[in-house]
Amino acid sequence: MQEPAVAFLKKYFNVKYVDMITEAGPVQYLADKQKSEITDSILKRVELAILRHNTVGIAVIAHYDCLGNPAPEEIQKQQLKEAAEFLKKHFPKERIETFWIDANRQVRTVD
Question: How far apart, in whole angstroms, are the C-alpha atoms of residue 95 and residue 63?
Answer without folding.
Answer: 21
